[in-house]
Amino acid sequence: MTDDRLPRCDRTRGLIDRVVGERVTPEDRAHAAGCERCGTVLLRASRFDDELRTTARGLVGEQLPHGVLDAELAPRLVDGLRPMRHAAPGIASMFAALVILVVAVTVAVAPGGLGPGATPQDTGLQFAVPVFRATVDIIRDVQAMEYSCIPGHALPTTGPGARLGEREGVACLTPKSLESATARITPVETREGKVVEITITGEQYGASTVTSRDELADVMSKLTALSISDPKVARDAAAFVLETLPRLRVLTSGDDALVIYGNVRILLQRYIAGDYRLTLQPT
Amino acid sequence: MEAIEPGLVQVTRRSDVDLDSAFAAARPRLLRIAASLVGADGAEDVVQDTYITARGRISQLRDPAAIEAWLARIAVHRSFRIRRRGKRLQELLQAVPVPRWSPPPVGRLELHELVEALPARERAVVVLQHGYGYSLAEVAELVGISHANARKISSRTRARLLRAWLEAEAS
Predict the structure, then answer these.
(1) Is-contact B153 B147, C-beta < 8 A?
(2) Nearest-by-Cβ selection for A56 from B77, B126, B163
(3) Distance from the A165 Cα atom to the nearest Cα atom in chain B, whole angstroms
(4) Is the four-CA dihedral A241, A244, A246, A251 of positive or negative sign?
(5) pLDDT band at A18; cut points 50, 70, 90
(6) Phi, psi (5° rounding) for residue A148?
(7) Fewer CB within 10 A of the end CB, N or C, for chain B?
Protein backbone atom coordinates (compact mmCIF):
# COMPACT_ATOMS: atom_id res chain seq x y z
CA MET A 1 0.00 0.00 0.00
CA THR A 2 1.35 3.43 -0.91
CA ASP A 3 2.23 5.61 1.98
CA ASP A 4 2.27 9.21 0.78
CA ARG A 5 3.97 10.27 3.97
CA LEU A 6 7.17 8.62 2.76
CA PRO A 7 9.60 11.13 1.29
CA ARG A 8 10.29 10.72 -2.41
CA CYS A 9 13.65 9.46 -3.53
CA ASP A 10 15.28 9.80 -6.95
CA ARG A 11 16.92 6.41 -6.62
CA THR A 12 13.74 4.37 -6.11
CA ARG A 13 12.96 3.84 -9.80
CA GLY A 14 16.49 2.72 -10.56
CA LEU A 15 16.39 0.45 -7.53
CA ILE A 16 13.23 -1.23 -8.85
CA ASP A 17 14.98 -1.83 -12.17
CA ARG A 18 17.86 -3.48 -10.37
CA VAL A 19 15.58 -5.55 -8.12
CA VAL A 20 13.71 -6.87 -11.16
CA GLY A 21 16.98 -7.46 -13.00
CA GLU A 22 18.50 -9.08 -9.90
CA ARG A 23 21.31 -6.54 -9.86
CA VAL A 24 20.85 -5.00 -6.42
CA THR A 25 24.19 -3.72 -5.17
CA PRO A 26 25.59 -3.35 -1.66
CA GLU A 27 25.33 0.41 -2.21
CA ASP A 28 21.61 0.01 -2.87
CA ARG A 29 21.21 -1.87 0.39
CA ALA A 30 23.23 0.71 2.29
CA HIS A 31 21.12 3.48 0.84
CA ALA A 32 17.87 1.62 1.53
CA ALA A 33 18.88 1.25 5.16
CA GLY A 34 18.55 5.00 5.51
CA CYS A 35 15.81 5.68 2.93
CA GLU A 36 12.34 4.71 3.98
CA ARG A 37 10.91 4.54 0.47
CA CYS A 38 13.73 2.45 -0.99
CA GLY A 39 13.79 0.33 2.16
CA THR A 40 10.09 -0.37 1.69
CA VAL A 41 10.75 -1.45 -1.91
CA LEU A 42 13.44 -3.92 -0.83
CA LEU A 43 11.27 -5.26 1.96
CA ARG A 44 8.35 -5.70 -0.41
CA ALA A 45 10.59 -7.44 -2.95
CA SER A 46 11.71 -9.93 -0.31
CA ARG A 47 8.07 -10.85 0.33
CA PHE A 48 7.13 -11.14 -3.32
CA ASP A 49 7.51 -14.88 -3.91
CA ASP A 50 5.61 -15.72 -0.76
CA GLU A 51 2.84 -13.33 -1.75
CA LEU A 52 2.75 -14.76 -5.27
CA ARG A 53 2.31 -18.30 -3.95
CA THR A 54 -0.44 -17.20 -1.62
CA THR A 55 -2.17 -15.30 -4.41
CA ALA A 56 -1.91 -18.17 -6.90
CA ARG A 57 -3.21 -20.65 -4.35
CA GLY A 58 -6.14 -18.37 -3.74
CA LEU A 59 -7.05 -18.64 -7.43
CA VAL A 60 -7.17 -22.43 -7.40
CA GLY A 61 -10.83 -23.35 -7.25
CA GLU A 62 -10.48 -27.04 -8.04
CA GLN A 63 -7.73 -29.62 -7.77
CA LEU A 64 -6.74 -31.50 -10.90
CA PRO A 65 -7.83 -35.16 -10.91
CA HIS A 66 -5.36 -37.77 -9.84
CA GLY A 67 -3.32 -39.04 -12.76
CA VAL A 68 -3.60 -35.91 -14.87
CA LEU A 69 0.13 -36.04 -15.50
CA ASP A 70 0.02 -39.61 -16.72
CA ALA A 71 1.85 -39.54 -20.05
CA GLU A 72 -0.44 -42.23 -21.40
CA LEU A 73 -3.51 -40.06 -21.07
CA ALA A 74 -3.16 -37.90 -24.12
CA PRO A 75 -0.17 -39.02 -26.15
CA ARG A 76 -0.82 -36.72 -29.06
CA LEU A 77 -1.76 -33.66 -27.06
CA VAL A 78 1.73 -32.84 -25.92
CA ASP A 79 5.25 -33.41 -27.13
CA GLY A 80 8.53 -33.75 -25.31
CA LEU A 81 7.23 -35.35 -22.13
CA ARG A 82 9.53 -34.93 -19.22
CA PRO A 83 9.84 -36.87 -16.02
CA MET A 84 7.91 -35.72 -12.99
CA ARG A 85 9.50 -34.80 -9.75
CA HIS A 86 9.14 -37.62 -7.30
CA ALA A 87 10.24 -38.07 -3.78
CA ALA A 88 12.73 -40.91 -3.97
CA PRO A 89 12.18 -43.89 -1.73
CA GLY A 90 14.99 -46.15 -0.57
CA ILE A 91 17.53 -44.56 1.73
CA ALA A 92 14.90 -42.04 2.67
CA SER A 93 12.72 -44.77 4.10
CA MET A 94 15.54 -45.98 6.29
CA PHE A 95 16.13 -42.46 7.56
CA ALA A 96 12.43 -42.14 8.17
CA ALA A 97 12.33 -45.28 10.24
CA LEU A 98 15.15 -43.86 12.34
CA VAL A 99 13.34 -40.55 12.73
CA ILE A 100 10.16 -42.25 13.82
CA LEU A 101 12.06 -44.37 16.29
CA VAL A 102 13.76 -41.31 17.78
CA VAL A 103 10.48 -39.45 18.05
CA ALA A 104 8.70 -42.44 19.49
CA VAL A 105 11.38 -43.00 22.13
CA THR A 106 11.52 -39.30 22.97
CA VAL A 107 7.79 -39.14 23.40
CA ALA A 108 7.53 -42.39 25.27
CA VAL A 109 10.13 -41.44 27.88
CA ALA A 110 8.74 -37.93 28.32
CA PRO A 111 6.86 -37.11 31.52
CA GLY A 112 3.30 -38.21 31.03
CA GLY A 113 4.23 -40.35 28.03
CA LEU A 114 2.11 -40.52 24.95
CA GLY A 115 -1.48 -40.01 26.00
CA PRO A 116 -4.53 -41.52 24.41
CA GLY A 117 -5.13 -38.35 22.45
CA ALA A 118 -2.06 -39.05 20.32
CA THR A 119 -3.85 -41.77 18.45
CA PRO A 120 -7.09 -41.00 16.69
CA GLN A 121 -10.00 -42.51 18.52
CA ASP A 122 -11.45 -45.51 16.81
CA THR A 123 -14.89 -44.34 15.88
CA GLY A 124 -15.45 -47.13 13.42
CA LEU A 125 -15.78 -44.54 10.67
CA GLN A 126 -12.79 -44.17 8.38
CA PHE A 127 -13.59 -40.58 7.44
CA ALA A 128 -13.70 -39.53 11.08
CA VAL A 129 -9.95 -40.04 11.53
CA PRO A 130 -8.30 -36.60 11.55
CA VAL A 131 -5.45 -35.94 9.14
CA PHE A 132 -3.42 -34.14 11.76
CA ARG A 133 -2.95 -34.75 15.44
CA ALA A 134 -4.61 -32.41 17.91
CA THR A 135 -2.78 -29.30 19.05
CA VAL A 136 -2.66 -30.51 22.67
CA ASP A 137 -0.92 -33.70 21.57
CA ILE A 138 1.62 -31.79 19.52
CA ILE A 139 2.28 -29.44 22.44
CA ARG A 140 2.83 -32.35 24.81
CA ASP A 141 5.29 -34.00 22.44
CA VAL A 142 7.35 -30.93 21.67
CA GLN A 143 7.44 -29.78 25.28
CA ALA A 144 8.88 -33.16 26.12
CA MET A 145 11.70 -32.16 23.79
CA GLU A 146 12.10 -28.86 25.68
CA TYR A 147 10.39 -26.68 23.10
CA SER A 148 8.84 -23.45 24.35
CA CYS A 149 5.27 -22.72 23.30
CA ILE A 150 3.38 -19.44 23.09
CA PRO A 151 -0.23 -18.69 22.08
CA GLY A 152 -0.85 -18.29 18.35
CA HIS A 153 -2.44 -15.44 16.43
CA ALA A 154 -5.71 -15.06 14.56
CA LEU A 155 -5.45 -15.68 10.80
CA PRO A 156 -7.25 -14.10 7.82
CA THR A 157 -10.07 -16.28 6.50
CA THR A 158 -10.97 -14.15 3.49
CA GLY A 159 -9.06 -12.42 0.72
CA PRO A 160 -5.95 -13.55 -1.12
CA GLY A 161 -4.10 -14.36 2.10
CA ALA A 162 -6.93 -16.53 3.44
CA ARG A 163 -5.89 -19.63 5.35
CA LEU A 164 -7.61 -22.95 5.86
CA GLY A 165 -8.18 -22.20 9.53
CA GLU A 166 -8.91 -19.09 11.50
CA ARG A 167 -6.19 -19.17 14.15
CA GLU A 168 -2.83 -20.59 15.07
CA GLY A 169 -3.44 -23.16 17.78
CA VAL A 170 -0.02 -22.52 19.26
CA ALA A 171 3.52 -21.62 18.18
CA CYS A 172 6.28 -23.83 19.56
CA LEU A 173 9.99 -23.03 19.17
CA THR A 174 12.96 -25.33 19.30
CA PRO A 175 15.09 -25.22 22.47
CA LYS A 176 17.99 -22.79 22.57
CA SER A 177 20.36 -25.69 22.95
CA LEU A 178 20.06 -26.38 19.24
CA GLU A 179 23.39 -25.28 17.82
CA SER A 180 22.97 -24.16 14.25
CA ALA A 181 19.28 -23.69 13.53
CA THR A 182 15.88 -22.87 14.94
CA ALA A 183 12.46 -24.18 13.96
CA ARG A 184 8.89 -23.36 14.80
CA ILE A 185 5.75 -25.47 14.44
CA THR A 186 2.30 -23.94 14.17
CA PRO A 187 -0.92 -25.95 13.90
CA VAL A 188 -3.67 -23.97 12.18
CA GLU A 189 -7.10 -24.60 13.64
CA THR A 190 -10.72 -24.05 12.73
CA ARG A 191 -13.04 -22.32 15.17
CA GLU A 192 -13.94 -25.74 16.53
CA GLY A 193 -10.29 -26.48 17.27
CA LYS A 194 -9.75 -28.97 14.45
CA VAL A 195 -6.20 -28.84 13.05
CA VAL A 196 -6.48 -28.26 9.30
CA GLU A 197 -2.94 -27.22 8.44
CA ILE A 198 0.51 -27.44 9.95
CA THR A 199 3.26 -24.98 9.15
CA ILE A 200 6.83 -25.60 10.18
CA THR A 201 9.44 -22.93 9.55
CA GLY A 202 13.18 -23.19 9.95
CA GLU A 203 16.13 -20.82 9.97
CA GLN A 204 19.84 -21.39 10.15
CA TYR A 205 22.11 -19.37 12.39
CA GLY A 206 24.91 -17.73 10.41
CA ALA A 207 26.16 -19.37 7.24
CA SER A 208 24.28 -22.23 5.66
CA THR A 209 26.46 -25.30 5.93
CA VAL A 210 25.92 -28.98 5.31
CA THR A 211 25.83 -29.48 9.07
CA SER A 212 23.29 -26.74 9.72
CA ARG A 213 21.05 -27.91 6.88
CA ASP A 214 21.20 -31.49 8.09
CA GLU A 215 20.40 -30.41 11.64
CA LEU A 216 17.45 -28.36 10.42
CA ALA A 217 16.26 -31.23 8.23
CA ASP A 218 16.42 -33.53 11.22
CA VAL A 219 14.40 -31.16 13.41
CA MET A 220 11.79 -30.38 10.76
CA SER A 221 11.35 -34.03 9.83
CA LYS A 222 10.69 -34.91 13.48
CA LEU A 223 8.11 -32.16 13.72
CA THR A 224 6.54 -33.48 10.53
CA ALA A 225 6.39 -36.99 11.94
CA LEU A 226 4.60 -35.95 15.11
CA SER A 227 2.08 -33.77 13.25
CA ILE A 228 0.39 -36.42 11.11
CA SER A 229 -2.10 -38.95 12.46
CA ASP A 230 -1.47 -41.82 10.03
CA PRO A 231 1.82 -43.52 11.03
CA LYS A 232 2.72 -44.57 7.50
CA VAL A 233 2.04 -41.14 6.05
CA ALA A 234 3.97 -39.60 8.95
CA ARG A 235 6.94 -41.84 8.22
CA ASP A 236 6.94 -41.11 4.49
CA ALA A 237 6.52 -37.38 5.03
CA ALA A 238 9.36 -37.25 7.54
CA ALA A 239 11.62 -39.13 5.14
CA PHE A 240 10.77 -36.71 2.37
CA VAL A 241 11.69 -33.71 4.53
CA LEU A 242 14.86 -35.31 5.81
CA GLU A 243 16.09 -36.13 2.35
CA THR A 244 14.82 -33.16 0.36
CA LEU A 245 15.46 -30.17 2.63
CA PRO A 246 19.27 -30.21 2.42
CA ARG A 247 19.07 -30.44 -1.36
CA LEU A 248 16.89 -27.38 -1.96
CA ARG A 249 18.92 -24.68 -3.62
CA VAL A 250 19.15 -20.96 -2.98
CA LEU A 251 17.54 -19.48 -6.06
CA THR A 252 16.45 -15.94 -6.76
CA SER A 253 12.88 -17.11 -6.93
CA GLY A 254 13.32 -19.68 -4.18
CA ASP A 255 13.15 -23.43 -4.58
CA ASP A 256 10.48 -25.85 -3.52
CA ALA A 257 9.33 -29.43 -3.67
CA LEU A 258 5.86 -30.83 -3.45
CA VAL A 259 4.71 -34.34 -2.68
CA ILE A 260 1.50 -36.03 -1.61
CA TYR A 261 1.47 -38.98 0.76
CA GLY A 262 -1.90 -40.51 1.51
CA ASN A 263 -4.18 -37.68 2.52
CA VAL A 264 -1.46 -35.11 3.17
CA ARG A 265 -0.03 -32.58 0.73
CA ILE A 266 3.49 -31.54 1.68
CA LEU A 267 5.07 -28.40 0.29
CA LEU A 268 8.67 -27.70 1.27
CA GLN A 269 10.05 -24.31 0.30
CA ARG A 270 13.38 -22.61 0.59
CA TYR A 271 13.29 -18.85 0.29
CA ILE A 272 15.85 -16.51 -1.16
CA ALA A 273 16.92 -15.48 2.34
CA GLY A 274 17.79 -19.11 3.05
CA ASP A 275 14.99 -19.92 5.47
CA TYR A 276 12.61 -22.84 5.00
CA ARG A 277 8.88 -23.33 5.20
CA LEU A 278 7.02 -26.61 5.30
CA THR A 279 3.28 -26.62 4.79
CA LEU A 280 1.19 -29.71 5.50
CA GLN A 281 -2.36 -29.64 4.22
CA PRO A 282 -5.06 -32.26 3.68
CA THR A 283 -5.48 -33.28 0.04
CA MET B 1 -17.27 -48.51 -50.96
CA GLU B 2 -15.30 -49.74 -48.01
CA ALA B 3 -17.04 -52.29 -45.86
CA ILE B 4 -17.74 -51.17 -42.28
CA GLU B 5 -17.32 -53.68 -39.55
CA PRO B 6 -20.48 -53.72 -37.44
CA GLY B 7 -18.47 -54.05 -34.25
CA LEU B 8 -16.48 -50.93 -35.02
CA VAL B 9 -19.60 -48.84 -35.55
CA GLN B 10 -20.98 -50.04 -32.28
CA VAL B 11 -17.77 -49.17 -30.43
CA THR B 12 -17.69 -45.69 -31.92
CA ARG B 13 -21.26 -44.98 -30.92
CA ARG B 14 -20.72 -46.27 -27.43
CA SER B 15 -17.63 -44.03 -27.07
CA ASP B 16 -19.66 -41.00 -28.09
CA VAL B 17 -22.32 -41.77 -25.53
CA ASP B 18 -19.69 -42.45 -22.86
CA LEU B 19 -17.93 -39.20 -23.66
CA ASP B 20 -21.13 -37.19 -23.43
CA SER B 21 -22.14 -38.62 -20.10
CA ALA B 22 -18.59 -38.41 -18.72
CA PHE B 23 -18.28 -34.86 -19.95
CA ALA B 24 -21.60 -33.88 -18.42
CA ALA B 25 -20.47 -35.30 -15.10
CA ALA B 26 -17.05 -33.66 -15.27
CA ARG B 27 -18.22 -30.32 -16.62
CA PRO B 28 -18.61 -28.48 -13.28
CA ARG B 29 -15.15 -29.56 -12.24
CA LEU B 30 -13.66 -28.63 -15.62
CA LEU B 31 -15.25 -25.21 -15.33
CA ARG B 32 -13.65 -24.68 -11.93
CA ILE B 33 -10.27 -25.84 -13.20
CA ALA B 34 -10.52 -23.56 -16.23
CA ALA B 35 -11.64 -20.66 -14.04
CA SER B 36 -8.58 -21.21 -11.86
CA LEU B 37 -6.32 -20.98 -14.87
CA VAL B 38 -7.88 -18.33 -17.10
CA GLY B 39 -10.49 -16.67 -14.93
CA ALA B 40 -14.25 -17.06 -14.89
CA ASP B 41 -14.74 -15.11 -18.12
CA GLY B 42 -12.76 -17.52 -20.27
CA ALA B 43 -13.67 -20.74 -18.48
CA GLU B 44 -16.73 -21.52 -20.57
CA ASP B 45 -14.74 -21.15 -23.80
CA VAL B 46 -12.09 -23.49 -22.46
CA VAL B 47 -14.65 -26.11 -21.50
CA GLN B 48 -16.32 -25.90 -24.91
CA ASP B 49 -12.92 -26.29 -26.58
CA THR B 50 -12.26 -29.21 -24.29
CA TYR B 51 -15.40 -30.98 -25.43
CA ILE B 52 -14.66 -30.39 -29.11
CA THR B 53 -11.08 -31.59 -28.71
CA ALA B 54 -12.14 -34.60 -26.67
CA ARG B 55 -14.76 -35.57 -29.20
CA GLY B 56 -12.21 -35.45 -32.00
CA ARG B 57 -9.66 -37.46 -30.07
CA ILE B 58 -11.75 -39.90 -28.11
CA SER B 59 -10.09 -42.75 -29.98
CA GLN B 60 -6.78 -41.77 -28.32
CA LEU B 61 -8.13 -42.42 -24.85
CA ARG B 62 -6.52 -45.70 -23.88
CA ASP B 63 -8.00 -46.10 -20.42
CA PRO B 64 -11.73 -45.24 -20.24
CA ALA B 65 -11.48 -45.22 -16.44
CA ALA B 66 -9.16 -42.23 -16.71
CA ILE B 67 -11.54 -40.13 -18.76
CA GLU B 68 -11.95 -37.39 -16.14
CA ALA B 69 -8.20 -36.91 -15.81
CA TRP B 70 -7.95 -36.99 -19.59
CA LEU B 71 -10.59 -34.28 -19.92
CA ALA B 72 -8.88 -32.21 -17.22
CA ARG B 73 -5.61 -32.50 -19.05
CA ILE B 74 -7.21 -31.30 -22.26
CA ALA B 75 -8.80 -28.42 -20.34
CA VAL B 76 -5.41 -27.36 -18.96
CA HIS B 77 -3.95 -27.64 -22.43
CA ARG B 78 -6.75 -25.55 -23.95
CA SER B 79 -6.51 -22.98 -21.15
CA PHE B 80 -2.98 -22.23 -22.19
CA ARG B 81 -4.04 -21.78 -25.80
CA ILE B 82 -7.08 -19.58 -25.35
CA ARG B 83 -4.92 -16.50 -25.62
CA ARG B 84 -5.68 -15.65 -29.22
CA ARG B 85 -9.38 -15.69 -28.68
CA GLY B 86 -8.95 -13.52 -25.58
CA LYS B 87 -6.68 -11.15 -27.43
CA ARG B 88 -9.12 -10.85 -30.33
CA LEU B 89 -11.91 -10.19 -27.83
CA GLN B 90 -9.83 -7.48 -26.17
CA GLU B 91 -9.22 -5.86 -29.55
CA LEU B 92 -12.93 -5.87 -30.28
CA LEU B 93 -13.72 -4.43 -26.88
CA GLN B 94 -11.17 -1.67 -27.33
CA ALA B 95 -12.94 -0.63 -30.51
CA VAL B 96 -16.20 -0.18 -28.61
CA PRO B 97 -16.56 3.26 -27.02
CA VAL B 98 -16.92 2.93 -23.27
CA PRO B 99 -17.49 5.48 -20.53
CA ARG B 100 -14.31 7.05 -19.24
CA TRP B 101 -12.97 4.91 -16.45
CA SER B 102 -10.61 6.04 -13.76
CA PRO B 103 -8.18 3.39 -12.62
CA PRO B 104 -8.00 2.74 -8.89
CA PRO B 105 -5.16 4.45 -7.03
CA VAL B 106 -2.03 2.53 -7.98
CA GLY B 107 -1.10 1.97 -4.38
CA ARG B 108 -4.25 -0.08 -3.91
CA LEU B 109 -3.26 -2.49 -6.66
CA GLU B 110 -2.86 -5.85 -4.98
CA LEU B 111 -0.97 -8.79 -6.37
CA HIS B 112 -4.08 -10.85 -7.05
CA GLU B 113 -5.37 -8.07 -9.30
CA LEU B 114 -2.13 -8.12 -11.25
CA VAL B 115 -2.22 -11.91 -11.63
CA GLU B 116 -5.84 -11.87 -12.73
CA ALA B 117 -5.02 -9.25 -15.35
CA LEU B 118 -2.29 -11.40 -16.93
CA PRO B 119 -2.81 -12.85 -20.42
CA ALA B 120 -4.22 -16.37 -20.26
CA ARG B 121 -1.02 -18.31 -20.92
CA GLU B 122 1.02 -16.36 -18.38
CA ARG B 123 -1.73 -16.68 -15.80
CA ALA B 124 -2.05 -20.40 -16.48
CA VAL B 125 1.68 -20.92 -15.90
CA VAL B 126 1.63 -18.85 -12.70
CA VAL B 127 -1.36 -20.73 -11.28
CA LEU B 128 -0.07 -24.16 -12.28
CA GLN B 129 3.39 -23.45 -10.85
CA HIS B 130 2.66 -21.43 -7.75
CA GLY B 131 -0.97 -22.33 -7.07
CA TYR B 132 -1.05 -26.03 -7.85
CA GLY B 133 2.62 -26.44 -6.96
CA TYR B 134 3.76 -28.19 -10.12
CA SER B 135 7.40 -28.00 -11.12
CA LEU B 136 8.17 -26.19 -14.35
CA ALA B 137 8.86 -29.54 -16.03
CA GLU B 138 5.38 -30.67 -15.05
CA VAL B 139 3.83 -27.39 -16.17
CA ALA B 140 5.57 -27.78 -19.52
CA GLU B 141 4.21 -31.30 -19.81
CA LEU B 142 0.67 -30.26 -18.91
CA VAL B 143 0.42 -27.38 -21.36
CA GLY B 144 2.49 -29.02 -24.09
CA ILE B 145 5.52 -26.75 -24.36
CA SER B 146 9.23 -27.26 -23.82
CA HIS B 147 10.75 -26.95 -20.37
CA ALA B 148 12.86 -24.05 -21.60
CA ASN B 149 9.79 -22.23 -22.86
CA ALA B 150 7.94 -22.79 -19.59
CA ARG B 151 10.93 -21.44 -17.69
CA LYS B 152 11.06 -18.42 -19.95
CA ILE B 153 7.37 -17.64 -19.52
CA SER B 154 7.59 -18.14 -15.77
CA SER B 155 10.65 -15.93 -15.42
CA ARG B 156 9.30 -13.18 -17.64
CA THR B 157 5.93 -13.17 -15.91
CA ARG B 158 7.52 -13.07 -12.48
CA ALA B 159 9.60 -10.06 -13.51
CA ARG B 160 6.53 -8.28 -14.88
CA LEU B 161 4.52 -8.90 -11.75
CA LEU B 162 7.37 -7.93 -9.46
CA ARG B 163 7.95 -4.67 -11.30
CA ALA B 164 4.26 -3.75 -11.30
CA TRP B 165 3.94 -4.65 -7.64
CA LEU B 166 6.98 -2.61 -6.61
CA GLU B 167 5.99 0.35 -8.74
CA ALA B 168 2.56 0.31 -7.15
CA GLU B 169 4.30 0.66 -3.81
CA ALA B 170 6.75 3.31 -4.90
CA SER B 171 4.48 5.56 -6.94
Answers:
(1) no
(2) B126
(3) 18
(4) negative
(5) very high
(6) -110, 135
(7) N
